[in-house]
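Worked example 2:
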Amino acid sequence: MAGRRVLTSTRVLKAVTRSAQPEDLHEVVRLLGALGAGASEEQVAQFLRLGGEVLVATVLGQVSGIAVLEWLHPQQSARAEAWLTALVTDAPARHRGIARALLEEAARRARQAGGDRLRLGCPLERDDLRAFLAAAGFEPRLLVFERPTV
């Protein structure tokens, strides 16, 4: 009998992206916690009620990543700007196209809302994230300065 060939891959089944639902709030809060953002389920629900968007990526029905999409309405621009204020995937699900699927869904929603750009901030020390964003077609355009208010 000839040897069986087993195909292996680092990819998993295609991620399905959609808007977060009430039953996703626990997982959204858990993934936000991985970023150090201490939000409660009620705070996330309030954010959604006020017009913010949380996108989830699921694989086999399990939430494996999230993206938080917020809108900035600058006075000097006729168009709203789409900002991703969080993008995180579950550690075991990394390097499987989940973050890229979330970026594509966020870009689609931004286009649908009349926006022509998708923006997100990247900490200076995150070389891995900067490399991922460059590979996904993002270009550095803005340097943000911040300081404590006290």
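The longest helix spans residues 98-112. The radius of gyration is 17 Å.
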